[in-house]
Design goal:
Layout (H helix, E strand, L loop, with lengths): L2 E4 L4 H9 L6 H17 L1 H12 L10 H10 L2 H18 L7 E3 L6 E9 L2 E5 L8 H14 L3 E5 L10 H10 L3 E3 L3 H10 L9 E3 L4 H10 L4 E2 L7 E6 L5 H12 L6 E6 L2 H15 L5 H11 L1 E4 L3 H11 L3 E5 L3 H4 L8 E4 L5 H6 L25 E9 L1 H17 L3 H8 L4
Parallel strand pairs: 1-11, 4-5, 4-7, 5-6, 7-8, 9-10, 9-12, 10-11, 12-13
Antiparallel strand pairs: 2-3, 3-14
Helix pairs in contact: 2-3, 2-8, 2-9, 3-8, 4-7, 5-6, 5-7, 6-7, 8-9, 10-11, 10-12, 16-17
EC number: 1.1.1.23
Protein name: Histidinol dehydrogenase
Pathway: Amino-acid biosynthesis; L-histidine biosynthesis; L-histidine from 5-phospho-alpha-D-ribose 1-diphosphate: step 9/9
Amino acid sequence: MLRVIESGQSREFLNELFDRTTTDYKEIYKVVEGIIENVKKNGDDAVKEYTERFDGVKLDSIEVTGREIEEAVARVDSDLLETIRKSYNNIKDYHKRQLRESTTYKPNGKNIILGQLVNPIEKAGIYVPGGKAAYPSTVLMNAVPAKLAGVEEVIMITPPNKEGKIQDSILAAASISGVDRIFKVGGAQGIAALAYGTESIPKVFKITGPGNIYVAAAKKMVSDFVGIDMIAGPSEILVIADKSSNPRYIAADLISQAEHDEMAASILVTDSPSLIRNVNIELKKITDTLERKDIILKSLTTYGAAIHTNGLQESIDITNEIAPEHLEIATVNPFEDYKKIKNAGAIFLGNYTPEPVGDYFAGPNHTLPTSSTAKFSSPLSVDDFIKKTSLIYYSRDALEATKDDIIRFAENEGLTGHANSIKIRFE
């Protein structure tokens, strides 16, 4: 099931892993560029045209009405609705701790004021995959930090199904998390509509949320004009384990990511050969019982691997090089071992914290850096929905005390106009 790789021969696999997201976007860009230009030129008409072509439904109105939302919430199973509310509360409780305030200070007690103003982005657009698959958890993970940050208007877009409807649980999650307006639009046309605005869809200042390769390409293409969160690649999970680990738990967790799509990567890193053998046995047993068996098998055999190491430190070193989206530490002492991890999107500790706990319920965001970008990127957070402005004040005395240094810097860089703007105040 999982190919077994000795740590000394892991370079070829790592290269395959890193290269799996280097998609040739040339042809996709051509298609997406045409869609974006059409939406910029023709607005709602273009959006409706693409919705009919790609989603198979002709819509008179693309905005979800308040009545549609109320009826959807009423139809949602009461237990599921309560689960969504619990998840909302956990996500809100976690993300509210990320809030920051504007600050000012006076260095050295002089007549100088320096500071940083923190303001929310005024309008944010969130993209939620829809159609055949629907993800109310994605609504919560994007909308909750946006509203906590103080975003005045959160605009949600999501593709409709063949009946022109949005799944009830998605609308319920949007209602609970305070989304302001919802549109039955997906794909590159939806990203273009959020970036440039149409007659119905407001132009936003930042777009967040995952999507297919066309959505990713569209986000890249509009990123010079509007902010985006990240370009998400295929899902990843890496498990660091040792001989004490439960092979059935590990197999189940590797499968939880493999079922996403055939490009997902599920990796076991351990110094225990017996654990590798037992995990492979459990993988086969569990996979045979699941609906998405074909996708799981393709994912595990293509981008799955068990890397056999010479000890825990080597396991940690390989993990830091891979920088996985999801990292589970199933060792004897995970509370010490996690302190050595430098690069990971989210870390899950112990035998009873499987990755789906983070996907749906715990509170930390499930929008995570993929494809080794955890080396320099962070999970989606309140920070993605705020912007910071520097604040500077110098009194006359403060400027006079520092004017020679500033003039010296300016003249060294050949910018005499800069130097003159200082000199002129003391003539």
